[in-house]
Amino acid sequence: MAGVFINYRTGDGATAAVLLDEQLKEVFGPENVFRDRRTTQPGVHFPPELWRHLESCAVLLVLIGPNWLSLCDIDGRRRIDVPGDYVHDEIQRGLSWRKTVIPVLIDSAELPKKEQLPADITELTERQFMQLRVPYAHLDLPVITEALRSHVPVRRTEPQPDQRPAPPAPGAPQPGAHSTYHDCAVTNGSGNATVNQNRDAQSGDRQ
User: Fold this and answer.
1) What gap in Å lies between CA 117 and CA 67, rounded to an integer?
2) How far is 133 from 140, CA to CA, in rounded Å?
3) What is the pLDDT of residues 49-73, one digit of tens each?
4) Rounded to an integer, what distance in angstroms lies between the CA atom of residue 145 and that of residue 125?
5) Helical (H) or strand (E) element with 55
6) Measured distance CA(91)–CA(124) in Å, rounded
7) For site-directed labelling of 45, which of 16, 34, 113, 184 has its Cα 20 to 30 A away?
């Protein structure tokens, strides 16, 4: 899957993750967009499935909301510092595997400073970021989608029945037959892009 992997933290970006997922899967196909709760089927061994999708993706989108750094576990430790934190581990592997890693700042969030992050993911602060303002998602989502078109192939869809040309009426010239009308050709430009299919499913909770 040369697709997109959406990294987000529960409690700080889950809504934006759903919005982004819905937009991207329409353009690149649900099979080319990974969001854990939609993509992972019930009963699947979650960690190996997670790393398999991350390894095969082209782009890792890191969603950073206003509380991304400050959310803590029950012991008062920042989640980003807790061993086994999926958000941290996905970022660390994405960086070490030399993926295209794009921080996506949600609403009023700011890109963290190096000294605020664990040492093995400080490179995240050196990546060019994008913004997703949830109230203005209709403006920001197309910008993010366009930026991904150079990394992910676009979805190819079959024409729907009502989009197919109507059969010629009786007595009308058949295709290729001579007529008094001139044939016309129209060339449409297209951008780069990608997509896939997916079924709804739930996976283990992200922290």
Assistant:
1) 14
2) 7
3) 899 999 999 999 999 999 999 999 9
4) 22
5) helix 46-56
6) 8
7) 16
